[in-house]
Amino acid sequence: MKVALGVDVIRFPLTGIGRYAYELAKGLGQSEEVERLFFLSGRRLGRSFPSEPGVSPTTALSSLKRFVGRRFVEHRCVLDIYRSINDVLRVRALMNAEGAVYHGPNYYLPAYDGPSVATFHDLSVLDCPEFHPPERVAYMRSELPVALERADVLLTISEHARQAVLAYSGFSPERVLAVPLAASSEFKPRTAKECAEVLVRFGLGFGRYVLYAGTVEPRKNLGRLLDAYEILPARVKNHFPLVVAGYRGWCSDEVHVRLQQAQSEGWAFYLGFVSASDLPVLYSGARIFAFPSLYEGFGLPLLEAMASGVPVVCSDSTSLPEVGGGYPLMCAPDDVDQLSHLLVRAIEDEPWRERVIPSGIAHAGSFSWERTVTGTLKAYRAAMERK
Questions:
Q1: Which SUPFAM superfamilies does the record match to this protein (predicted)?
Q2: Distance between CA atoms of 174 and 279, rounded to whole angstroms?
């Protein structure tokens, strides 16, 4: 088959959906089933594999969206006009990939006549709009129905997300496929010696901290994680500080004020964004991984932690029980007392740790990007059958 993959979301350093699209691009390029692979970047169609320092130049549309920013609503008419023009130019570019399956890995689809597949990672903009900036909510609420009209098949990244998308789209079950993600091979157990250079640079001790990795934003529930940490016994809080690694996201000022106070008291550290080379080492050196998120389409950090040989404490919300496979310690995302209790147990319960670490490694290993590519190709075949 011929495939055209949208790659606007692939920007380095890779995070989230960008990582997903990058791994798909790499896997599809290695598949014997894909005769020709095209990449749609902005309004240009090419054959070159996305690579650093940037995949896709910033498109004019994304530049306009940044300019509009929080004044989205009053500039909505301008943005709508531009999107319409941009859509026409994308379709014109795709004429050079006639007969290809087009895959939009980040919800959106151009008005392409050929078979089309879109990945809906989650529906948090609809289910929990308070977790997103208003301009993102408005934009996606206008674009998701358009994608539904154009899609032959939808992909999700978990069964939880699939059930939500089925209910929202009204599609028949065979038109919505759940294809899970995977942790990359860089996430693996390491010895103290192997972690030493990175941990010394961050001022951390091997096995002497609790890690959270991800964007600092409302749906990640870091406020309650800080609440749970504040009530930890002194023997735990003082010897196993909380380390937060990730971009400073939307609506996170209050959390950062609390992190600064906690850092001054010696029981938390904010590292900001951590490079792709340092992050796997940071995982490997942690005593446990904490992830009390309120909403996830998948929850890849759980797999990354387990693959690194690090026990997990997380919430039992949305897709996390599915991804965790029964190995993390879980509680309701709003139960601060229970979260605090589970943090202590995960740190101090050696028999439990000895059981769960090898099981978690094996569970994480059952996910692979090869499996993701195989499931994605199944979606492409289903889309082709509908044309």
A1: UDP-Glycosyltransferase/glycogen phosphorylase
A2: 38
- Residue 314: which of 298, 325, 302 has the closest Cα? 302
3-state DSSP call for residue 16? helix
Do 289 and 311 meet the contact criterion of CB atoms below 8 Å apart?
yes
Within a 10 A sphere around the Cβ of 283, how many other Cβ atoms?
28
Residues 98 and 215 placed together within one structural domain of the fold: no
Identify whether residues 223 and 298 lie together within a single domain: yes
What confidence tens digit (pLDDT) does each residue in 347-387 have? 999 999 999 999 999 999 999 999 999 999 999 999 999 98
Which strands, in side-by-side order, build the sheet including 153-156?
44-46, 36-41, 2-6, 101-104, 116-119, 153-156, 176-178
Q: Is 341 helix (H, G, I), strand (E, B) or coil?
A: helix
Is the pLDDT at 72 greater than 60, yes or no?
no
Q: Are residues 199 and 311 in the same domain?
A: yes
Among 317, 326, 277, which Cα is nearest to 295's? 317
What is the span of the domain harbouring residue 320?
A: 192-365
What is the mean predicted confidence (pLDDT) over 1-29? 93
Question: Quick check: helix, strand or coil at residue 252?
Answer: coil
Is the distance from CB of 4 to CB of 34 less than 8 angstroms?
A: no
Q: Is there a domain that residue 156 lies in?
A: yes
Q: In this predicted structure, what is the pLDDT of residue 73?
A: 46
The answer to whether position 141 is within a domain reads: yes
Distance CA 94, CA 46 (A): 10
Q: Give the tokens for residue 379.
A: 């979606």
